[in-house]
Amino acid sequence: MSVADILNRKGSVVKTVGPDVPAQTFAQLLQKEGIGAMVVKNTDGSIAGIISERDLAYGLAIHGSNLGHLSVSELMTKAVITCCPSDSLSKIMKVMTERRIRHLPVLDGQALVGIVTIGDVLKFRLEETQMEAAVLRDYAIARG
Predict the structure, then answer these.
(1) Burial of 27 from C-beta contacts in 10 A (0-12 / 13-18 / 19+)
(2) Strand ranges inside 53-138, DSSP E
(3) Is the pLDDT of residue 127 over 80?
(4) Residue 58 near residue 36, CB atoms below 8 Å
(5) What is the pTM of this model?
(6) Which domains does the chain have, with CATH numbers?
């Protein structure tokens, strides 16, 4: 299974936010959308970074009550780790585990075409495992 397979099933909508958006507004957007991260895009459409609920938590630890007045660009992760549609599920699992990240923007060339989360990976890996178990069970029953 590839990243493209995941995006085909879950959809390729990516919620983005501008770098100048206040952290408090960003937190409200996360709650409204029911998501854990957003890609930060510049006005020219280029990716400036990614910001997650973890960035908010770390920001709160560092800045305390001033957090809400900071901008997304002051809290975001600037070195964005991405994947591409042809990447395998096992490859992105390894990247997420080794880098301790939960959200991978998907780029096709320079175009942002989706985002894959650790939840997506777990869901699709579980489906693969269940299908493999069903095939083995059917084989065992057929063999008597």
Answers:
(1) middle
(2) 103-108, 111-117
(3) no
(4) no
(5) 0.85
(6) 3-143 (3.10.580.10)
